């Protein structure tokens, strides 16, 4: 309609639109109820008949709103449909729908089936028979039937988890066209070249020259997973797609065998057709991964299955030789580690462990490799034996130690000594490897001619020796022997793991052999599938266990699924759909796409086919939207009417609140990105400022005048510091040890008030922690005048004792004359404040050593966490805004005040610089030494 | 919408702390008010405060030289003995005036449009109580007509407000005071919107003034009532009765209404003039302080020149 993809189910209803002008007139003369206003002086004019009564009209905008409501309802009744389904080309012959049912069709399967169903229904209206040919069953002959049969069959169809070969449908089509030449062919293509789409299209074009076949294809092709690789650090997943364009990013989910999610990874194609995603997970978790799928992509191609071949095994390496890390090429474990690194996780006890075997077994490896190590009877032997019994694989390499004293953890009895080829006293040439026996797990590997063995240990020629031999030299002597013990295996390389006996460890064959051995470590559990048990593996088949359907869901196998041959790579097909095959503990995965597979877009250029887009978007019934619109407009109209008649006026706040509520509700419905930038930053402004500048701090006592004195004293001291030293402290601050973070303050001035309550034990713990972490607290008892030598402690002193009884305080002593705190900035004799008589106590210094005896300053290893004085330092420092001192001094004098300030400067410098002044006394000596 | 108005509900009409505080606040902005009375000398009740002028009273006011022709009994001999002249001891004139207050609390007063900050009732109460406080501070006695006797207590606002609240709890207030005559030589202050029938108003006022009381009428009006700003389709409701008037085009009636209103007020003024009362019109969008000042100047015309009031201490 009008060039728009719009159609009406009941167009006749649109005639009601003609009634809108009538409605317009009707609405126009029925105005809303008038505003009702109380008016006390009404009685003055109550007798008045209105002289002029202009007919009031409904406002135009309200009129339009109401007309819009009516129009919307009429339109809704007419059943408007956006994107109506396309009509079928006229014809008389049967309609044959060729349906691509590979995994690429799965994401849009419903749309494809709907499109096919629509066409079938349209054909039925025209009385034409229909048929559907799914490509996966292309070889099966079809007979055109009624549309209901076709639709039923369409409903029963499910996408297949592989890309079927379309060419097999050609004979059926030829047969159909031969019987009914006027048949209409509609091919619903999945847009991929995979499965010979181009050849099929060419053939189709050739067959249908009279009625060009229609091709329906959707522009988008699915992303798919093709191959994965369990690398040492991560599980690497390869993703492919057919088109370079498109969103090209998404997320992968990894699941274990039970379907539980293990991890996820993001991927992005960019403009490429191939990309990789890696799942960074611990190896134990990665080994659990059985299925990786693209989120939101319901197709078998978007799923890759991982069996035990993808598991990384943990291999423990123990060497009998003393490992010399400086010469790694001499160490057998070096070659083993290099060879195993690409596919296994290596555990090695470097050195220092008293019992490396036990330590490694504690890490629960799958494979233990002992390089030239003799395991004598003892706990290690028993643990290794039980390790093998429980299914572990023990790989041993020969060497001089093993050749000297063989234990029983070897597959074959060994001759003492061994033999040497090609040595100076030997006529023998170094021996090469013979071809691997078909029963050997190494079957299929090519023994390189360059690999030679110059020395080996020899097995006793026991009757079962040949069964135990996995590899042998050209002269028939075994090179690798193995024996099954319990659930596990014992494997012996008759050569060393380093290059002293052979150059096998240098070859790529070595890597391949080790890989096969490591792969065995999971299958040793089941005797039936164990290749070591000598079963005829070529005859073994693996029955389907769990099979993927086209949508990428694992389920029970369909009847058409047939077993696969063990050990042979199987391409997915109708008979062998992707999925897991084999017993539960030895599953083999078959994937829709394997490493190296790519997706190619279908190219139909130059072919005489009628190309149509698979319904770009599904038909949208506009009825609901229109009815909603009408309802909203109706609500608006009700609100407007209420407003016009004055019902809303005095409830304006309520209306505003309601409107806000609606807006807020609407906003909250939008999934807002949570703003969490401030999360976890629970830092107060005070702490922030304290952290940004050096500040002196005092402990708030709760007594306002004392706190004021402390503050003013520290302010004066801060000014003195800023004037005299390079330190410019921030404003002093009062802190409460129970509440505030103390870590920002290098020095804490604590005037003792004996009437203050003792801090809680938690606060004491914080004080102790502060002192432990390098903070210094200056306790000022301010009781110099009350102190009596030998007398009872003053109340302040007793209070301080109580406080410190709960704190781990170092040993303290009266301030020695040569303590570094008396030298840090000024040279002082002691610390005076308002009083000069009290003793200053500080952390005891280590005893004077002989070499230090004549030094001018001494210091401990760290800053003393505690200084105790009784001289009321802050009282002496305290000054008002003009710098006038606030308190008189005892005995008094400007000199004492200056000395008090100098003491404060020294204390701050001491806490900030530590003992460097004590070291600086060496400067003279150091300079002399440098000059020398 | 340009015009919005509402009638306050009964719970909003309750006289509470708001009005008391507002009244107190307002009253404290003006100095103590002393009523000027023409017939003060004959007042029966003696007040406790002086009138800052010589007259009948007990407190000493001033000595002045004796003038020939005066009664010799007025000479203060003790003072006169100090020098050669004779002095007369003058006493301060001490008298008190009684003011009877009436505040309209009918439903039509509980009316507030969006043009005014408060309802007419609120404004009337604030004005009345503030005047009462002002008068009591000036030493006068204030009573509510028909409700209380006249008090001169400091907490006059609370006393009057309580009396009003009790009266309002008992029944609905009429829109006119009872026509019981006010005592002679007392003053009446009537605050209301006086929208009643002019004849009824005239009868009431004449009754009140029948004993010779002087008085002042404060007519409080909402700006909406003064301007009639309605336009278009409007339905007007009466506040006291259930009468309604639906107007197709309200603006057409504006002129008529304004004429009627002016006529009504003229009638009110005529009645007031006939009994010697004054009428003052106050709109609620004007400041209450302004109205209070006008009321005060009506009660004490001399106050404006500053001689009749002022701090006592």
Automatic annotation (TrEMBL), chain A:
Name this protein carries in UniProt: DUF4159 domain-containing protein
PANTHER family: BLL2463 PROTEIN
Native source species: Lichenifustis flavocetrariae
Signal peptide residue numbers: none
Transmembrane segments: 6-27, 60-82, 624-646, 653-672
Keywords (A to Z) from UniProt: Membrane, Transmembrane, Transmembrane helix
All residue ranges annotated as the DUF4159 domain in the record: 695-912
Key word Membrane present: yes
Domain Aerotolerance regulator N-terminal: 6-80
InterPro entries in the cross-refs: Aerotolerance_reg_N (IPR024163), Double_TM_dom (IPR011933), DUF4159 (IPR025297)
UniProt cross-references to CDD domains, sorted A to Z: A4_beta-galactosidase_middle_domain
TrEMBL record, chain B:
UniProt-listed InterPro entries: DUF58 (IPR002881)
Annotated DUF58 domain residues: 63-266
Highest rank taxon of the organism: Bacteria
Name assigned to this protein: DUF58 domain-containing protein
């Amino acid at each position: 309609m009008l060039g728009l993809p719009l159609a009406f189910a009941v167009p006749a209803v649109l005639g009601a639109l003609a009634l809108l002008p009538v409605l317009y007139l009707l609405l126009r003369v029925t105005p809303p109820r008038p505003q009702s206003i109380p008016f006390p002086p009404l009685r003055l004019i109550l007798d008045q008949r209105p002289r002029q009564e202009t007919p009031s009209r409904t406002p135009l905008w309200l009129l339009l709103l109401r007309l819009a409501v009516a129009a919307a309802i009429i339109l809704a009744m007419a059943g408007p449909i956006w994107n109506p389904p396309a009509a079928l080309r006229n014809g008389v012959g049967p309609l044959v729908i060729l349906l691509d049912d590979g995994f690429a069709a799965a994401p849009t399967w419903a749309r494809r089936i709907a499109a096919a169903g629509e066409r079938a229904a349209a054909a039925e209206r025209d009385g034409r028979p229909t048929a559907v040919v799914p490509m996966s069953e292309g070889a099966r002959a079809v007979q055109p039937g009624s549309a209901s049969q076709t639709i039923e069959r369409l409903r029963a169809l499910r996408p297949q988890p592989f890309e079927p070969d379309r060419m097999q449908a050609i004979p059926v089509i030829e047969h159909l066209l031969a019987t009914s030449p006027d048949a209409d062919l509609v091919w619903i293509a999945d847009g991929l070249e995979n499965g010979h789409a181009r050849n099929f299209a060419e053939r189709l074009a050739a067959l249908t020259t009279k009625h060009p076949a229609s091709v329906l294809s959707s522009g988008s092709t699915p992303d798919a997973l093709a191959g994965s690789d369990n690398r040492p650090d991560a599980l690497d997943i390869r993703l492919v797609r057919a088109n370079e364009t498109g969103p090209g990013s998404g997320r992968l989910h990894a699941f274990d065998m039970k379907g539980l999610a293990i991890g996820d990874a993001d991927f992005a194609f960019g403009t490429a057709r191939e990309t990789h995603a890696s799942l960074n997970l611990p190896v134990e978790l990665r080994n659990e991964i059985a299925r990786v799928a693209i989120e939101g992509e319901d197709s078998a191609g978007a799923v890759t299955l991982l069996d035990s071949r993808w598991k990384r095994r943990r291999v423990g390496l123990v060497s009998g030789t003393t490992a010399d890390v400086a010469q790694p090429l001499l160490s057998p474990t070096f070659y083993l580690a290099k060879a195993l690194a690409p596919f296994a996780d290596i555990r090695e006890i470097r050195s220092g462990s008293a019992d490396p075997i036990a330590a490694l077994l504690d890490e629960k490896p799958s494979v233990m490799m002992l390089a030239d190590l003799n395991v004598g009877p003892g706990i290690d032997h028993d643990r290794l034996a039980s390790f093998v019994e429980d299914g572990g694989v023990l790989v041993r390499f020969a060497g001089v130690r093993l050749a000297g004293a063989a234990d029983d953890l070897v597959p074959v009895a060994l001759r003492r000594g061994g033999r040497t080829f090609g040595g100076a006293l030997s006529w023998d040439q170094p021996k090469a490897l013979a071809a691997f026996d078909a029963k050997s797990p190494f079957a299929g590997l090519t023994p390189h001619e360059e690999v030679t063995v110059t020395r080996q240990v020899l097995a006793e020629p026991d009757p079962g020796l040949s069964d135990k031999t996995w590899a042998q030299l050209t002269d028939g002597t075994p090179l690798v022997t193995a024996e099954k013990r319990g659930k596990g295996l014992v494997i012996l390389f008759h050569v060393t793991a380093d290059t002293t006996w052979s150059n096998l460890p240098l070859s790529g064959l070595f890597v391949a052999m080790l890989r096969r051995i490591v792969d065995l470590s999971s299958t040793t559990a089941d005797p039936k599938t164990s290749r070591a048990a000598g079963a005829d593996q070529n005859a073994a088949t693996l029955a389907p266990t769990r099979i993927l359907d086209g949508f990428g869901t694992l389920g029970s196998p369909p009847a058409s699924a047939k077993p696969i041959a063990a050990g042979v790579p199987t391409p997915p097909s109708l008979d062998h759909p992707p999925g897991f095959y084999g017993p539960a503990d030895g599953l083999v995965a078959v994937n829709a796409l394997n490493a190296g597979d790519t997706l190619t877009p279908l190219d139909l250029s130059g072919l005489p086919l009628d190309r149509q887009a698979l319904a770009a978007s599904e038909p949208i019934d506009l009825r609901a939207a229109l009815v909603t619109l009408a309802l909203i407009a109706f609500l608006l109209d009700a609100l407007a009417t209420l407003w016009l008649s004055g019902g809303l006026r005095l409830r304006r706040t309520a209306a505003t609140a309601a409107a806000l509520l609606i807006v807020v509700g609407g906003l909250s419905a939008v999934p807002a990105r949570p703003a969490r930038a401030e999360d976890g930053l629970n830092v107060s402004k005070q702490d922030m400022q304290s952290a940004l500048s050096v500040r002196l701090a005092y402990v708030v006592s709760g007594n306002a005048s004392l706190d004021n004195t402390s503050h003013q004293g520290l302010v004066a001291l801060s000014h003195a510091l800023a004037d005299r030293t390079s330190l410019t402290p921030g404003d002093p601050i009062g802190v409460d040890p129970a509440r505030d973070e103390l870590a920002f303050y290098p020095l804490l001035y604590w005037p003792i008030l004996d009437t203050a309550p003792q801090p809680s034990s938690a606060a004491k713990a914080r004080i102790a922690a502060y002192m432990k972490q390098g903070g210094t607290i200056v306790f000022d008892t301010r009781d110099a005048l009350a102190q009596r030598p030998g007398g009872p402690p003053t109340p302040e002193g007793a209070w301080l004792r109580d406080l410190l009884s709960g704190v781990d305080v170092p040993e303290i002593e009266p301030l020695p004359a040569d303590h570094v705190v008396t030298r840090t900035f000024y040279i002082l004799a002691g610390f005076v404040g308002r009083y000069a008589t009290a003793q200053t106590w500080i952390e005891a210094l280590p005893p004077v050593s002989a070499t230090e005896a004549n030094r001018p300053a001494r210091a401990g290893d760290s800053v003393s966490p505690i200084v105790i004085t009784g001289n009321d330092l802050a009282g002496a420092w305290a000054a008002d805004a003009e710098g006038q001192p606030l308190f008189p001094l005892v005995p008094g004098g400007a000199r004492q005040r200056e000395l008090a300030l100098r003491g404060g400067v020294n204390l701050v410098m001491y806490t900030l610089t530590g003992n460097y002044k004590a070291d600086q006394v060496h400067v003279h000596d150091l300079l002399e030494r440098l000059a020398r | 919408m340009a015009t919005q108005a509402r009638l306050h509900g009964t719970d909003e009409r309750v006289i509470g702390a708001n009005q008391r505080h507002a009244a107190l606040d307002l009253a404290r902005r003006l100095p103590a008010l002393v009523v000027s009375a023409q017939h003060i000398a004959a007042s029966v009740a003696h007040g406790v405060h002086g009138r800052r002028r010589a007259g009948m009273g007990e407190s000493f006011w001033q000595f002045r030289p004796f003038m020939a022709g005066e009664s010799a009994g007025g000479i203060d001999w003790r003072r006169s003995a100090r020098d050669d002249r004779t002095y007369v001891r003058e006493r301060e004139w001490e008298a008190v005036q009684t003011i009877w207050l009436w505040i309209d609390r009918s439903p039509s007063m509980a009316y507030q449009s969006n043009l005014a900050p408060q309802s007419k009732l609120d404004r009337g109460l604030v004005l009345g109580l503030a005047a009462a406080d002002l008068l009591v501070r000036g030493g006068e006695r204030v009573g509510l007509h028909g409700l209380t006797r006249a008090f001169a207590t400091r907490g006059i606002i609370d006393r009057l407000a309580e009396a009003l609240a009790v009266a309002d709890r008992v029944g609905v207030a009429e829109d006119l005071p009872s026509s019981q005559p006010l005592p002679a030589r007392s003053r009446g202050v009537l605050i209301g919107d006086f929208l009643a029938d002019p004849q009824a108003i005239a009868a009431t006022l004449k009754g009140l003034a029948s004993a010779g009381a002087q008085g002042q009428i404060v007519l409080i009006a909402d700006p909406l009532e003064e301007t009639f700003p309605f336009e278009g389709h409007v339905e007007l409701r009466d506040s006291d009765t259930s009468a309604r008037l639906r107007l197709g085009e309200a603006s057409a009636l504006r002129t008529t209404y304004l004429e009627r209103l002016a006529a009504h007020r003229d009638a009110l003024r005529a009645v007031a003039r006939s009994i010697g009362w004054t009428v003052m019109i106050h709109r609620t969008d004007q400041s209450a302080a302004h109205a209070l000042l006008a009321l005060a100047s009506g009660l004490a015309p001399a106050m404006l020149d500053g001689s009749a009031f002022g701090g006592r201490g």
